């Protein structure tokens, strides 16, 4: 695969882009269709105590990210030698199988094992993004990275609504745990469609590289224009993902504390949880174009600072609708964080190393997911919900300071 230096898109680019975008959308939708209801599923298939349900649910959530963090570098190396398309096929094919099998789960341990296997073979969105990064002219990289992020975000928005509706419908119709099993079967089928689409509709301009000819990762890092900048983007990905995940586990509880006597807590909490994704979805395209105009590092700095500022009133408000509005604005700012970091990686990494660099970035993102969820749960348990917002905001401020210090004066490709 070669980096595109002209502004011309290669033949078949649009077909590959739309196929991979849809694949990322279904991957994001499939995850959010099933994960929000995993604790209810576990409680229905076994006689577990409240502590066991919480523990097993937490393990089922964390196992995927732990597996990703461990295995991603290996898959990244394979992607650089065999191609990103093959990795997308591997991820979607195994996800179709493991998600379907999870629907037949007889107990919680089975679910946890399946989630670990799924995480070990995951990486569709990561490899689809790396594939499009290599096929896209640099002048359009910002917009493409934003659009690829939008796909997963849109899927995450639709998933809970679809999963909740399917669970209720089939639960009333079939009874028992089947209401929670059916979404797994539907998701598995959709991932199989993604596997077929990726196999037959995506063309990758890639020449396989023998293992003997592949540069070691240490040599690649030394040859980069700025190793410091690449590592900084890894850390940025981890901290931004951590700031996102720290809020997710406690949003509904925070909303409940604001309206203790209301019967609409679930609905309002769903709105509050969904608004960041809606903001990102609306703003991603425009911010992507702006990124191509002024450079991803500038957009990243602005996004981090706005994110930090928004967390201050979030920690102070006692109105869930104000919280929802602020989180909508945070979603807009988020459209300038992770896509900007990915764009910096794209512009400062040789094409033959995309797979490994993006896989390491995925590992840092997975670590951020685990750290964020643990941080949010622990802080809210030992202190209060507002403290989670304060500390998360200062995490983004720390990230902003790191970008200012370590990216200042560095020789890099920012446009």
Automatic annotation (TrEMBL):
<feature type="transmembrane region" description="Helical">
    <location>
        <begin position="182"/>
        <end position="202"/>
    </location>
</feature>
<keyword id="KW-0813">Transport</keyword>
<dbReference type="GO" id="GO:0022857">
    <property type="term" value="F:transmembrane transporter activity"/>
</dbReference>
<dbReference type="InterPro" id="IPR010645">
    <property type="entry name" value="MFS_4"/>
</dbReference>
<dbReference type="GO" id="GO:0005886">
    <property type="term" value="C:plasma membrane"/>
</dbReference>
<keyword id="KW-0812">Transmembrane</keyword>
<keyword id="KW-1133">Transmembrane helix</keyword>
<feature type="transmembrane region" description="Helical">
    <location>
        <begin position="299"/>
        <end position="316"/>
    </location>
</feature>
<dbReference type="InterPro" id="IPR036259">
    <property type="entry name" value="MFS_trans_sf"/>
</dbReference>
<dbReference type="Pfam" id="PF07690">
    <property type="entry name" value="MFS_1"/>
</dbReference>
<feature type="transmembrane region" description="Helical">
    <location>
        <begin position="53"/>
        <end position="71"/>
    </location>
</feature>
<keyword id="KW-1003">Cell membrane</keyword>
<dbReference type="InterPro" id="IPR011701">
    <property type="entry name" value="MFS"/>
</dbReference>
<feature type="transmembrane region" description="Helical">
    <location>
        <begin position="388"/>
        <end position="410"/>
    </location>
</feature>
<protein>
    <recommendedName>
        <fullName>Major facilitator superfamily (MFS) profile domain-containing protein</fullName>
    </recommendedName>
</protein>
<dbReference type="InterPro" id="IPR020846">
    <property type="entry name" value="MFS_dom"/>
</dbReference>
<feature type="transmembrane region" description="Helical">
    <location>
        <begin position="223"/>
        <end position="245"/>
    </location>
</feature>
<feature type="transmembrane region" description="Helical">
    <location>
        <begin position="265"/>
        <end position="287"/>
    </location>
</feature>
<feature type="transmembrane region" description="Helical">
    <location>
        <begin position="322"/>
        <end position="341"/>
    </location>
</feature>
<feature type="transmembrane region" description="Helical">
    <location>
        <begin position="20"/>
        <end position="41"/>
    </location>
</feature>
<dbReference type="Pfam" id="PF06779">
    <property type="entry name" value="MFS_4"/>
</dbReference>
<feature type="transmembrane region" description="Helical">
    <location>
        <begin position="362"/>
        <end position="382"/>
    </location>
</feature>
<feature type="domain" description="Major facilitator superfamily (MFS) profile">
    <location>
        <begin position="16"/>
        <end position="411"/>
    </location>
</feature>
<keyword id="KW-0472">Membrane</keyword>
<feature type="transmembrane region" description="Helical">
    <location>
        <begin position="91"/>
        <end position="113"/>
    </location>
</feature>
């Amino acid at each position: 695969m070669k980096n595109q230096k002209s502004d011309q898109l290669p033949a078949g680019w649009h077909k590959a882009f739309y196929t991979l975008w849809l694949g990322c959308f279904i991957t994001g939708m499939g995850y959010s269709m099933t994960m929000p209801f995993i604790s209810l599923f576990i409680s229905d298939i076994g006689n577990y105590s409240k502590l066991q349900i919480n523990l097993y649910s937490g393990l089922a959530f964390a196992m995927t990210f732990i597996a990703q963090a461990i295995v991603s570098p290996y898959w990244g190396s394979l992607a650089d030698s065999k191609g990103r398309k093959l990795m997308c096929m591997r991820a979607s094919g195994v996800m179709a199988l493991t998600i379907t099998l999870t629907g037949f789960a007889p107990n919680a341990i089975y679910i946890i094992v399946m989630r670990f296997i799924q995480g070990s073979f995951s990486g569709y969105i990561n490899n689809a993004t790396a594939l499009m990064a290599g096929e896209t002219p640099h002048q359009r990289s910002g917009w493409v990275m934003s659009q690829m992020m939008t796909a997963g975000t849109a899927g995450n928005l639709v998933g809970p609504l679809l999963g909740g509706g399917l669970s209720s419908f089939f639960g009333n119709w079939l009874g028992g745990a089947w209401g929670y099993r059916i979404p797994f079967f539907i998701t598995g089928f959709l991932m199989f469609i993604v596997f077929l689409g990726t196999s037959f509709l995506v063309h990758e301009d890639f020449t396989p590289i023998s293992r003997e000819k592949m540069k070691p990762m240490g040599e690649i890092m030394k040859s980069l224009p700025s190793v410091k900048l690449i590592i900084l983007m890894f850390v940025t990905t981890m901290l931004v993902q951590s700031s996102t995940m720290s809020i997710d586990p406690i949003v509904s509880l925070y909303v409940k504390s604001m309206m203790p006597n209301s019967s609409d807590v679930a609905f309002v909490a769903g709105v509050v949880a969904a608004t960041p994704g809606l903001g990102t979805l609306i703003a991603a395209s425009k911010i992507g174009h702006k990124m191509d105009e002024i450079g991803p590092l500038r957009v990243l700095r602005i996004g981090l600072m706005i994110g930090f500022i928004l967390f201050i009133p979030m920690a102070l408000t006692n109105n869930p609708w104000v919280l929802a509005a602020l989180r909508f604005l945070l979603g807009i700012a988020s459209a300038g964080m992770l896509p900007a970091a990915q764009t910096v990686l794209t512009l400062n990494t040789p094409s033959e190393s995309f797979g490994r660099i993006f896989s390491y970035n995925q590992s840092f993102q997975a670590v951020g997911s685990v750290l964020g969820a643990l941080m949010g749960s622990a802080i809210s348990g030992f202190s209060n919900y507002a403290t989670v917002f304060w500390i998360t905001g200062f995490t983004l401020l720390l990230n902003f300071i790191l970008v200012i210090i370590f990216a200042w004066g560095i020789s890099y490709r920012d446009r």
